Amino acid sequence: MPDLFVNAMPDQTGSDEPHAEQPYTTNSHARVYPSRPEKIYLYGNCLIDLLQPEAGLDALKLLEREGIEVVFPEQQTCCGQPAYTSGYDDEARTVARMQMDIMSEEWPIVILSGSCGGMMHHHYPSLFKGLPEEQQAKYFASRVFEFTEFLVHILNYQPEDQGNHQTVAVHTSCSARREMNVHKTGWLLIDSLKNVVRKVHDHEFECCGFGGSFCVRYPDISGAMVNDKVKAITDIKPDRLISADYACLMNINGALDFQGYELKGTHIASYLWERTSKQAAGENNA
Amino acid sequence: MPEQIPMQNLSFNQRVDRDLNNPALRTHFREAMDFLMDKRSHSFTDDEKLQSLRELGSSIRKRALSKLPDLLEQLENKLRDNGIRVHWAESSKEANQIVLDIAQHHGAKTMIKGKSMVSEETELNECLEQEGIHPVEADMGEYILQLAKEKPSHIVMPAIHKSKEDIAKLFEQNLDDCEYTEDVDTLIQAARKELRKQFHSADIGLTGVNFMVAETGSLVLVENEGNGRLATTVPKVHIAMTGIEKVTEYLDDLPPLLTLLTNSATGQAITTYVNIISSPRKGGEGGPEEVHLVLLDNGRTIPFADEEMRQTLQCIRCAACMNHCPVYTRLGGHAYGATYPGPIGSILSPHLLGLEATKDLPSASSLCGACSEVCPVKIPITDLLRRLRHEGVRKLKKDEEPVIRGHGAKYTHTEKLAWGSWSKLYSSPALYRTFAFSASMMRGLTPSKMKGWTDYRTTPKPAEKSMHALIKQHRKARKGEPL
Amino acid sequence: MSLSARANILSRLRAGLGKSSPLTKGSDQGSVAHYNWSESEKIEHFIEVISGVKGEVHRVSESNWPEAVQTLLSDRGIDRLLVSEEKQTGKRLIGSTLELIPTTGFDERKDELFFSIPASLTTAQSAIAETGSLVLWPDEQEPRSMSLVPPVHLVLLRAQDIHGTLADVIRAEGWARGMPTNALLISGPSKTADIARILAYGAHGPKELIILLVS
Q1: Alpha helices, DSSP H, located in chain A
Q2: pTM of structure
Q3: What's the complex ipTM?
């Protein structure tokens, strides 16, 4: 079966066990990664900040445990994506400008969300194209790394699994997959947990239906998508659902809860912390 | 399938409601799109080669568009030298009139048609029928739809929404000596027999065109059935209709585009027939005595004028974007209410029909990017969807010319104000810090629609403490008592 | 029809381009697949691909192919063949048990062509290994409906005429210097999947495509 689709598309549309020998080589569009930094900026994202803040704290603890000095700029708010995807460029720029200004040092910016990462890494340069901030935006974009991408490619992080046997379904956000190309780093981290078995769900590559304002503007289309996603995930009966993107999780968790499932998706930062800290793993199993 | 209601009578949301709640249709499209996705992914097995080929395909199309007026003139000269007559049409109406004039000049009663999405775009059949000329669709999918009085729901497989049972019933009702059967071979042979009669007697053959080659003055048609070949071989007159963007510069540009088209569309290395026509018959080799080409603008010059939106015209109509689109998969093609559905339709239709009539299309996408990823000529479809959203809500500057018809169609003062407040809030850390997550704020962004979220999901509850607060607390604790 | 439509469209396009300069072939990025196939690899690949789409290939020799044609047709209960006696195909079949139907004057023989001719034999100009395609340039002796209307289409192809890719054929045969009225690539019998995605052969064109590969 060909590896590869950089991206994305399925080798097949149904679900299957992941291939044990699946190579995690990155594709030809892979970034050149810097060496291990001493200091980084941690960027939470607005949804994590307000709705699942533990993920942010867990990411911070994990990075600090790896010996990285974490700077958490207090002024951070939102990457500007909601306005940008709705077509409000001026409003998006105002917000984006502020994020660039508060993280102007040369340190890498580690982001707990593939879609905010995609916004900053992929879209900031075009958002400021032809404007005085263009160079600043390009430099900023070059320092933006998604959390799992940073762990795998820059820290070479090898999690030491302390937890019991669990099966896990993974949902990768479309931006992480297609704009950041980091779907494989999430898989890699989960697969390197020795007591965790990753199970592939039907149409795993497909969007969960969140899409920012799309889910409220076209609730029935979005609802059809998230219902299919919930069905695909619950069909394989995983012990846990993990994603590196809280926006998708908010969507999927909301639908899981609405349909009465106990399963609740967890951000990968919290899951990695939970699996690798004795205390946390113990707490969870208790 | 519920009875087809003329689409102009329903709003986008009504069509969505109708098709989303049709379980048979949902299952059908899911299976059909899975089939087509699997086909494609099994034919492009080497990602590195695929990316290089897409790069080339994109270059060829960009190069052609960068000199489009010159290439069209070169094509016209070559075709004229070869004996093919070229007609130009600014609108659907003009294009139909040209076809009608040719037909009437020959006293034609029947027209046999190969598959042509452009003739769907211009609603040629309706126009011909009004004038007493009987069009017969010969592509099997189009033939089925003509019997059912429906529009295509997919640009490559137009009748993909019809089940075997639907078709068996249609044939039983409409074809002589055709009993109800679900045996596909029997059904196809019944249609073949009927259509052979039509090919035999038709006065005019009309087809679309997949590519035109300026260098040699050639029209290239790609198909599996042979209807295109029959329509361009048997009747005395052949009329080809296509959009002005379909031209390529050199014959050498053709092989990579063909490879991209057929593999992306149906996972075929090549279609059964590639039919390259460069002149009417010259002697006894057969073929029509007259060949006409109708070049249609119908709004294509609008995106052409904007460098970013010009990329829309790179499209080679493979339909891979719709096959991979999670929204199209759930709605099918009819809900879009335009000739070209799916992602490509959502960036093309606003130019052909104006943003006023299509304002939902660019917004009804989660921007997941599957379309851009599979596009064989690398059209940045999600970027163009977003650009159209921007044009839909933007106010023109003083003396600024709109780049699209229906510019600002989605602008509302309320939403503009809401985003203004949003922008202020998220660019002022102090304000943001004091901002508690509030459903009323969300409601302000999308008036009256918040309800949609809770039709399918429970409401997310703000945590007791924000990440900001938790990290502050964590750091304080660590200072006091290191972990 | 309307001169103004032409002028308007071209002027809108020119205005749309503004002062941007045209791209040249030299600036194209990307590439197509290249193959370094030997002669025998080309033949093998051609056979594999066209067989995969239900093209029937028979390897024959220069001396025995007329015999093969007769056997293939008699196996199908066919004793009449549309073939040009001006071409080598027809010449070699004169005197066989087959009734040879002449290929000229179809305009007056449309009924016969459509409803009673069971099979045809044409020559292939060349073929393409990559896609398993036959290249036909119909002419006066072998008009274009010969490969389209009869339900069984036999094609005589010489192994040395198989090229690697379409691009190779275009270059080797100098297509850009002058195209015929109709150039055809044929890759298998006619087919459709328009009913419920189920593949059915013989949609509008031949139901069977039989290749006599001479080497």
Answers
A1: 46-51, 53-65, 81-86, 89-102, 114-118, 124-127, 134-142, 147-149, 174-178, 183-191, 214-217, 219-235, 246-258, 268-276, 278-285
A2: 0.94
A3: 0.97
